[in-house]
Amino acid sequence: MEGLKDLLDARITETVATTRDGNGESNAAPMGLVRDGDVYARLWEGSTTLENVRATNQVVVNFTRDPVVYVETAMDDGSGFVVDGRLRDADGWIRCDAESVEEKRDEVTRWRLTERERNVEERILPTHSRGFASVIEATVHATRLSFKPELRELYEHHIDVARKCGGEREREAVDRLVEHVEG
Ligand SMILES: Cc1cc2nc3c(=O)[nH]c(=O)nc-3n(C[C@H](O)[C@H](O)[C@H](O)COP(=O)(O)O)c2cc1C
What we know:
Number of helices: 5
Strand order of the largest sheet: 1-2-3-8-7-4
Bound molecules: flavin mononucleotide
CATH superfamily of the largest domain: Electron Transport, Fmn-binding Protein, Chain A
Largest sheet: 6 strands, antiparallel, barrel
CATH class of the largest domain: Mainly Beta
CATH topology of the largest domain: Pnp Oxidase, Chain A
């Protein structure tokens, strides 16, 4: 098995990482997987995910279609969504070892991920929703607004698209996102 790569077509695939600290406390946060020869996570200094990966060299990569999970795990610790070290309602998850490798930028760390255990719960027909995509975009921008305020216009644009094109879960996700950002 090629390990992870056979699942990932895009250069960057959005997932939700679940990790544990040295005492076994869980954390969840969105994480883009970079396919660049091998598969890498690039983790910015300051996140709990990075702290936990440094402590354990382990990460579980979760695949979910739930936009609310992306919002809540990005804006809060997300531990309420975690069961047995993985996302409760994930369509699938992969336990990986994470090995630190060289990265050019100072504020980012790079980790090569090696698949150890794969679980696929759901096989679904692929559909594409601009609403879901816009929740992801709005959430990425929301996590950067504090140091890049010029992203606000894009953030607001994607909130509008999510409300216009998304379903109930997308509308709930953006309502929660706006509460986190404005509240
Ligand atoms: C779709 C999406 C993808 C993200 N990908 C990454 C990533 O690859 N690396 C990273 O350091 N932060 C990424 N972030 C931002 C983190 O998820 C965010 O900073 C989060 O608050 C970190 O939570 P933690 O402190 O619980 O780890 C992403 C956010 C979103 C919404």
